[in-house]
Amino acid sequence: MRIAKILLFMLAAASLLAPLPAMANDKPGKGVTVKPARATWNTGFFQEALVRRALTEMGYDVKKPKDLANPIFYKSVALGDVDYWTNGWFPNHDSQLPRNFDKTAGIYGYVVRAGGLQGYLVSKRDVEKFNIKSLDDFKRPEVMKAFDANGDGKADLTACPPGWGCENVIAWHMKVYDLKKSINPVKASYEAGMASALGRYKSGKPIFFYTWAPNWTIFKLKPGKDVMWINVPKIIPKKSQESAKDRMTASGIKGAVSDPVKLGFVVSDIRVVANKKFVDANPAAKKFFEIFTLPLEDINEQNTKMNEGQKSQKDIERHVDEWIAKNQDKWNKWLAEARKAAK
Fold first, then answer.
1. What does the pLDDT read at residue 254?
2. Cα–Cα distance list, 103 to 99, 109, 282, 289 (Å)
3. Which residues on neighbouring strands pair with residue 108, listed in sequence order?
4. What three-state secondary structure class fits 105?
5. What domains can be seen in the chain, in order of their start residue?
6. In this predicted structure, what is the pLDDT of residue 5?
7. Average pLDDT of the segment spanning 119-126
């Protein structure tokens, strides 16, 4: 009887010294290879790196992200060729989704709710000089001449590269507002185009460009001080925008020529998009996609660092380290919730 009691005591002590069950779930992604994608615009790189870091901390073997144009990504994630990205803009990207997309892919969480502000901006000094209020003002000969950088007789607009969702909307605006003879949308690399526009502005020349938030552009060229948001003549939504046309006019926008201002673009939510088979098989990853969120200001701050030269992958990873260090409690809570979902 005494020996039996000693054995029971030894077993109880051993159980206290054993690893806690939660520790066994610390790496729910162990053994799973993940294929992320990333948008072609570098203002979306930061959130991609943060999510990739979280998955890595949970034990996933996360490969280097593939940089893909929007339509190619949405086809790829639906087919399962890639697993996810953090750069979905909805409803702006709705028109780029392939048929039956929702059968094999899904949209999760809110990286930034209503974070996708888009529109046209013009150098403030030229807004005042030419009394520019909307795109219609670019039909005036004196305005076209002032903003003509290449000598083709049209005002040059720093626009979107082929394959971006904004490219389709800008083309729609050129058509429905009868601007094809007045405005030349320049579709080169956006980063190079904006660098050129910034140089023109610094040399005292007029500039006219499309941009979005989050973005470094509206930190280097501050609305209300350097540039102004202008209106479209009236809201004429594309078919893909009709369900959200009430989100194409915005109030309280700093540096707008009017309040409210008719932006002509839907103010979008930035969200994670992932393959359904992947998230069904990986509840920890799915949970992180659902709860991960960033203040718009934090993305803008990081974007500005990149524009100032800190744009290598090593720099971006350091920005991730810095952000996590400043938000450690939040980060730990997200990881704990994601790991719990894997039980």
1. 86
2. 9, 18, 18, 19
3. 272
4. strand
5. 31-114+269-341 (3.40.190.10), 116-268 (3.40.190.100)
6. 53
7. 98
